[in-house]
Specification:
Elements: E1 2-3, E2 9-10, H1 13-30, H2 35-51, H3 55-77, E3 81-82, H4 90-110, H5 113-131, E4 136-137, H6 141-165
Helix pairs in contact: 1-2, 1-4, 2-4, 3-4, 3-6, 5-6
Keywords: Membrane, Transmembrane, Transmembrane helix
Transmembrane segments: 22-46, 58-76, 88-106, 113-129, 135-155
Organism: Paraferrimonas sedimenticola
């Protein structure tokens, strides 16, 4: 536990960075089979945020999760992504929640590389998930990957700007 002179308990960024990395790998490699693993990781991180009484962190995370799930649901609605479940699989919703809780730490760690890395890694993760049969693209694969890269780049930029404007201590 990291505590400063005022008694405020800070988060250990390594916990969040490890959590999101593990969840991303599980979601990508196992698809729907990762649901319980991601749910467990998510609960552990929520308990950590609650233990620290960091309501601002939960509010920011809720906003990011809404943006992310809305993005994937919109991409499914317009036909870019085709999920077996409507609006999207549970494991992806849980992953978005977990990613949202971890984002301030990921952005702080990666800095300006955050948006660029999302632009590359996220579309490749979707492509792998489609190749593994977890869901499908509604358009040609290269077109879908390009559109996803643009969406994730925009998401990354939006997240960075929100944290900067809120003067978040993690950034």
């Amino acid at each position: 536990m990291l505590e400063n002179d005022s008694g405020y308990v800070r988060a250990n960024p390594k916990i969040y960075l490890s959590g999101v990395t593990l969840a991303w790998a599980l979601a990508t490699l196992l698809g729907p089979a990762s649901t319980w693993f991601i749910a467990t990781l998510l609960l552990l991180l929520i308990f950590d945020v609650a233990r620290r009484k960091d309501q601002e962190h939960l509010v920011i995370a809720a906003g990011y999760a809404c943006i992310g799930t809305t993005l994937d649901a919109t991409l499914a609605k317009v036909g870019l992504l085709k999920f077996d479940y409507s609006p999207m699989p549970v494991y992806l919703m849980l992953f978005w929640l977990l990613l949202a809780i971890c984002l301030p730490f990921v952005i702080a760690k990666m800095g300006k590389l955050f948006g660029l890395s999302l632009t590359i890694v996220a579309p490749l993760s979707y492509w792998y998930a489609v190749s593994a049969g977890y869901f499908s693209f509604g358009v040609e694969s290269l077109t879908a990957v390009g559109i996803l890269a643009l969406c994730w780049f925009a998401f990354g930029q939006l997240c960075q700007q929100i944290l900067i404007r809120l003067k978040n201590p993690h950034v």
